[in-house]
Structures are given as structure tokens and as C-alpha cells.
Specification:
Elements lengths: L1 H22 L9 E2 L5 E2 L1 H17 L4 E4 L11 E9 L1 H6 L5 E8 L2 E9 L4 E6 L11 E4 L2 E3 L11 E4 L14 E4 L3 H9 L5 E4 L4 H13 L3 E4 L21 E4 L5 H8 L5
Parallel strand pairs: 3-4, 10-11, 10-12
Antiparallel strand pairs: 1-2, 4-5, 5-6, 6-7, 7-8, 8-9, 12-14, 13-14
Length: 269
């Protein structure tokens, strides 16, 4: 398996660097259109989506693919890549440099490797998490090759908690931390993984928003909590994930789940 994991990491590094270099010329230069769910899409999203799919087909021909822009049905393959070609399309179109390329690799429906590259920040996050899959290999979470870990701090007014645009009703009540709103689901969550924030919440993320970062948060010592009763993973073969939201809370330590969860549960009630 060691050679396989080296191949996976090298593939993600090479592919996202190439895409990031190409996409950098389009930042703030392309007008978006609105999809049925209200999210934005550009020709750059579609180009990146197709380019990643072609690269996966060439490197891993027996792997399935589920992507934001084209293929929403979870396939009947042991291995499946879940792709968000540009996470943060609004930022991308407005010239804001926080946007990323997200690649999650699932084994039998559960994410085991995640890689998210932010081209203009030159930040590449990745991690390995095998859970109960029976797989073995490298462990841990990394930012540009250096290990990262969630914070061990307790909440205070000098610590950060991240909201998404659809979770601002949380602020109708006093909140124990300073609030930040990043505008990119993956970066929101990865700030918890690297210790910059104690927690974050996403009200309506899709599976491509969270598949890669789910791995990185878990491997960094954090906790990923579904705010609905049903678990997120493993995914179901044949199910259409195009419109299914996965409201979630991410925290830096298990003991903070009962502290933050009552404060954010309102986004799904």
C-alpha cells in the first residue's frame, strides 16, 4: 500500500498545482451563472472538473468519480474520488484569493484520504484516516508537508469560531468566541484542523464540500459531527447526492461537542 499512497499524494500535488496555475489567470475575470440550488458556477469550474476527471481516468482507471459539476451518483466501485473543482466560486469570481481545489478519496463509501489546495495562498492540506476500513498506510494531517493538529485550548472571546453564510441565525444569541466568515466551506473547516479556530459550522454543504476535509479534520485530532440524526458516511451506492445537504459542526476536541452543539443546532431546527 505504501507505493499506492505515494502515487495518490503525488497525483494530487501535481494535478492541483497545474490546475491552480491555469486558474490563477481567471480569478476575478469570469462572470458566473447561477445553478438551481442558488450556488454559482463558471466555465472555469467546468473546465477544472473535466480536467480532473480526465487525469483520474488516466492514472486510476478503475476508480469511480463523483463531482460537483457533472456526476452526482455514487458509483459501484471500491475506490471513488469526490471532486470540488473550485470550492469558493464566489470568492474566485470576485478576486478574493481564498478558493481551493478539493479531492477526497473514498474506500467503500468512506473517505480515507483528503487533499485541498489553495493556489493563491499556496497552501496544500492533506491527511489520511482509515477508521474501520481495514486499510493501513501513512497517518496524520499536514499543511505543506508539515504536521498539523487541532487546538487544545478552551473557548474564550479571544478564540475563533467560523460560520457560513446560511448559519448567521446563530448570532441571535450570545456566542462564546469571536466569529469569522470565510466564504469557503473547506477553508472554514480546515482552519479548525490546523488549530487556528476552535470550531466551525456549515448549514448546507454538499458531499463534495466535506469529503476531503472530513479526513483531514479527523486525522488532525478534531471531531466532525453531523447535525442530523443520520451519519454522513459510508455513502450509498446508486444514490444521487446532487441536492442532499449535510449540515455539520466541526470542533477541535471531543469534549467541545456538547459545548458548541446546542449553540448551533438551530440551523437545522
Amino acid at each position: 500500500m505504501e507505493q499506492f499512497w505515494r502515487e495518490v499524494l503525488t497525483f494530487c500535488q501535481t494535478t492541483t498545482q497545474k490546475l491552480g496555475h491555469h486558474l490563477g489567470a481567471d480569478v476575478g475575470q469570469i462572470s458566473p451563472t447561477q445553478k438551481e440550488d442558488g450556488s454559482l458556477v463558471t466555465e472555469a469550474d467546468r473546465w477544472a472538473d473535466q480536467t480532473i476527471q480526465e487525469a483520474i481516468a488516466a492514472q486510476f482507471p478503475d476508480h469511480g468519480v463523483l463531482t460537483e459539476e457533472t456526476t452526482h451518483i455514487f458509483p459501484k466501485t471500491d475506490w471513488c474520488w469526490i471532486i470540488d473543482p473550485i470550492d469558493g466560486t464566489t470568492n474566485f469570481t470576485r478576486g478574493i484569493p481564498i478558493w481551493g481545489i478539493s479531492l477526497g478519496l473514498l474506500y467503500r463509501g468512506t473517505p480515507v484520504f483528503g487533499f485541498v489546495h489553495f493556489p493563491q495562498l499556496q497552501h496544500s492540506f492533506y491527511g489520511y484516516w482509515y477508521g474501520e476500513t481495514g486499510l493501513t498506510g501513512p497517518e496524520g494531517a499536514y499543511l505543506n508537508g508539515k504536521p498539523i493538529h487541532t487546538s487544545s485550548d478552551q473557548p474564550s472571546k479571544s478564540h475563533l469560531f467560523n460560520l457560513c453564510a446560511r448559519s448567521t441565525q446563530i448570532l441571535k444569541q450570545p456566542f462564546p468566541c469571536k466569529i469569522r466568515m470565510i466564504g469557503v466551506a473547506s477553508y472554514n473547516i480546515l482552519l479548525v484542523a490546523c488549530g487556528a479556530a476552535l470550531g466551525g459550522v456549515e448549514a448546507t454543504p454538499k458531499i463534495w464540500d466535506i469529503a476531503a476535509v472530513w479526513v483531514i479534520v479527523n486525522s488532525a485530532g478534531g471531531v466532525f459531527v453531523s447535525l442530523k440524526d443520520d451519519p454522513i458516511f459510508p455513502l450509498t451506492i446508486g444514490q444521487d447526492y446532487g441536492t442532499k445537504p449535510f449540515p455539520c459542526l466541526v470542533v477541535s476536541q471531543p469534549e467541545l461537542v456538547p459545548f458548541f452543539k446546542p449553540l448551533v443546532q438551530c440551523i437545522v431546527s
